[in-house]
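Why does residue order matter? Because the sequence determines the fold. Keep that principle in mind as you read this record.
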Amino acid sequence: MARAGVAVGGAALLWMMTLCSAAPARAQACTCPGCCQLVPPPPNQLDPANGPSRRELNAVMAGGATAAIGAYVAGIFAARAQNHQNIAIDSIPIAGAVASAARNAPDDRTPLLLFSAGVQAMGLLVIAAAATDLAALRRLSVDVGAGPNGCDVRLTWRLP
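Structure:
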Protein backbone atom coordinates (compact mmCIF):
# COMPACT_ATOMS: atom_id res chain seq x y z
CA MET A 1 0.00 0.00 0.00
CA ALA A 2 2.80 2.43 0.86
CA ARG A 3 4.61 1.60 -2.39
CA ALA A 4 1.50 2.45 -4.38
CA GLY A 5 1.24 5.82 -2.61
CA VAL A 6 4.88 6.60 -3.40
CA ALA A 7 4.37 5.59 -7.02
CA VAL A 8 1.27 7.77 -7.37
CA GLY A 9 3.03 10.70 -5.65
CA GLY A 10 6.08 10.29 -7.91
CA ALA A 11 3.87 10.17 -11.01
CA ALA A 12 2.01 13.31 -9.89
CA LEU A 13 5.30 15.11 -9.30
CA LEU A 14 6.62 14.07 -12.72
CA TRP A 15 3.36 15.23 -14.35
CA MET A 16 3.57 18.65 -12.62
CA MET A 17 7.22 19.07 -13.63
CA THR A 18 6.38 18.43 -17.29
CA LEU A 19 3.50 20.94 -17.15
CA CYS A 20 5.65 23.62 -15.55
CA SER A 21 8.57 23.18 -17.94
CA ALA A 22 6.48 23.09 -21.13
CA ALA A 23 6.95 26.78 -21.98
CA PRO A 24 9.21 29.36 -20.40
CA ALA A 25 7.46 32.05 -18.40
CA ARG A 26 7.68 35.58 -19.80
CA ALA A 27 6.87 38.87 -18.12
CA GLN A 28 4.33 41.12 -19.79
CA ALA A 29 5.51 44.41 -21.16
CA CYS A 30 4.65 47.54 -19.17
CA THR A 31 1.93 49.50 -20.94
CA CYS A 32 1.16 52.27 -18.46
CA PRO A 33 2.88 55.61 -19.09
CA GLY A 34 5.55 56.71 -16.64
CA CYS A 35 5.41 53.76 -14.22
CA CYS A 36 8.74 52.21 -15.23
CA GLN A 37 10.77 55.34 -14.64
CA LEU A 38 13.14 55.58 -11.70
CA VAL A 39 12.20 57.82 -8.80
CA PRO A 40 14.77 60.58 -8.10
CA PRO A 41 16.68 60.28 -4.81
CA PRO A 42 15.40 62.30 -1.86
CA PRO A 43 17.05 65.65 -1.19
CA ASN A 44 19.82 66.00 1.37
CA GLN A 45 18.24 65.88 4.82
CA LEU A 46 20.90 68.12 6.37
CA ASP A 47 20.23 70.94 3.96
CA PRO A 48 18.69 73.77 6.02
CA ALA A 49 16.12 74.42 3.30
CA ASN A 50 14.89 70.78 3.06
CA GLY A 51 15.91 69.02 6.27
CA PRO A 52 14.66 69.15 9.83
CA SER A 53 14.79 72.47 11.61
CA ARG A 54 16.65 73.19 14.82
CA ARG A 55 13.38 73.21 16.73
CA GLU A 56 12.51 69.73 15.43
CA LEU A 57 15.93 68.35 16.31
CA ASN A 58 15.73 69.88 19.80
CA ALA A 59 12.30 68.27 20.24
CA VAL A 60 13.69 64.88 19.18
CA MET A 61 16.53 65.25 21.66
CA ALA A 62 14.08 66.18 24.42
CA GLY A 63 11.93 63.15 23.59
CA GLY A 64 14.93 60.82 23.67
CA ALA A 65 16.08 62.28 26.97
CA THR A 66 12.59 61.94 28.46
CA ALA A 67 12.39 58.28 27.43
CA ALA A 68 15.89 57.49 28.70
CA ILE A 69 15.36 59.25 32.06
CA GLY A 70 11.95 57.66 32.61
CA ALA A 71 13.33 54.20 31.87
CA TYR A 72 16.33 54.85 34.11
CA VAL A 73 14.07 55.78 37.05
CA ALA A 74 11.84 52.74 36.44
CA GLY A 75 14.94 50.52 36.28
CA ILE A 76 16.28 51.95 39.54
CA PHE A 77 12.99 51.28 41.37
CA ALA A 78 12.71 47.77 39.92
CA ALA A 79 16.33 46.98 40.86
CA ARG A 80 15.83 48.25 44.41
CA ALA A 81 12.87 45.90 44.82
CA GLN A 82 15.01 42.85 43.98
CA ASN A 83 16.30 40.49 46.67
CA HIS A 84 20.00 40.85 45.87
CA GLN A 85 20.81 44.55 45.46
CA ASN A 86 24.04 46.29 44.74
CA ILE A 87 23.25 49.99 44.75
CA ALA A 88 26.59 51.02 43.24
CA ILE A 89 26.13 48.74 40.22
CA ASP A 90 22.34 49.04 39.87
CA SER A 91 22.52 52.81 39.50
CA ILE A 92 24.70 52.66 36.35
CA PRO A 93 22.59 53.56 33.29
CA ILE A 94 21.78 50.63 30.97
CA ALA A 95 24.32 48.21 32.47
CA GLY A 96 22.86 48.41 35.98
CA ALA A 97 19.45 47.16 34.88
CA VAL A 98 21.00 44.30 32.91
CA ALA A 99 23.28 43.39 35.82
CA SER A 100 20.36 43.38 38.25
CA ALA A 101 18.32 41.16 35.92
CA ALA A 102 21.25 38.76 35.55
CA ARG A 103 22.07 38.70 39.27
CA ASN A 104 18.57 37.88 40.54
CA ALA A 105 16.26 34.97 39.91
CA PRO A 106 13.85 35.36 36.98
CA ASP A 107 10.62 36.85 38.29
CA ASP A 108 8.08 39.42 37.19
CA ARG A 109 10.61 42.29 37.44
CA THR A 110 13.21 40.77 35.08
CA PRO A 111 11.38 41.76 31.87
CA LEU A 112 10.87 45.27 33.28
CA LEU A 113 14.59 45.59 33.98
CA LEU A 114 15.58 44.42 30.50
CA PHE A 115 12.93 46.62 28.87
CA SER A 116 14.23 49.53 30.92
CA ALA A 117 17.78 48.91 29.68
CA GLY A 118 16.56 48.73 26.08
CA VAL A 119 14.59 51.97 26.33
CA GLN A 120 17.57 53.71 27.94
CA ALA A 121 19.81 52.57 25.10
CA MET A 122 17.32 53.63 22.42
CA GLY A 123 16.86 57.01 24.10
CA LEU A 124 20.60 57.59 24.10
CA LEU A 125 20.84 56.54 20.44
CA VAL A 126 18.06 58.98 19.51
CA ILE A 127 19.86 61.75 21.40
CA ALA A 128 23.14 60.95 19.63
CA ALA A 129 21.54 60.85 16.17
CA ALA A 130 19.70 64.13 16.69
CA ALA A 131 22.81 65.76 18.19
CA THR A 132 24.95 64.84 15.19
CA ASP A 133 22.32 66.21 12.81
CA LEU A 134 22.09 69.37 14.91
CA ALA A 135 25.87 69.75 14.92
CA ALA A 136 25.95 69.36 11.14
CA LEU A 137 23.11 71.85 10.78
CA ARG A 138 24.86 74.40 13.00
CA ARG A 139 28.20 73.57 11.39
CA LEU A 140 29.78 72.75 14.75
CA SER A 141 33.07 70.93 15.00
CA VAL A 142 34.39 69.36 18.19
CA ASP A 143 38.05 68.38 18.24
CA VAL A 144 39.31 66.22 21.09
CA GLY A 145 43.01 65.60 21.39
CA ALA A 146 45.38 63.92 23.79
CA GLY A 147 49.11 64.26 23.97
CA PRO A 148 52.03 63.91 26.34
CA ASN A 149 51.24 67.29 27.89
CA GLY A 150 47.58 66.54 28.59
CA CYS A 151 44.23 66.65 26.83
CA ASP A 152 42.44 69.45 25.06
CA VAL A 153 38.99 70.03 23.58
CA ARG A 154 38.17 72.66 20.99
CA LEU A 155 34.71 73.68 19.87
CA THR A 156 34.63 75.58 16.59
CA TRP A 157 31.77 76.76 14.45
CA ARG A 158 31.11 78.68 11.28
CA LEU A 159 28.51 81.38 11.10
CA PRO A 160 26.12 81.16 8.14
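The chain has a mean pLDDT of 75.
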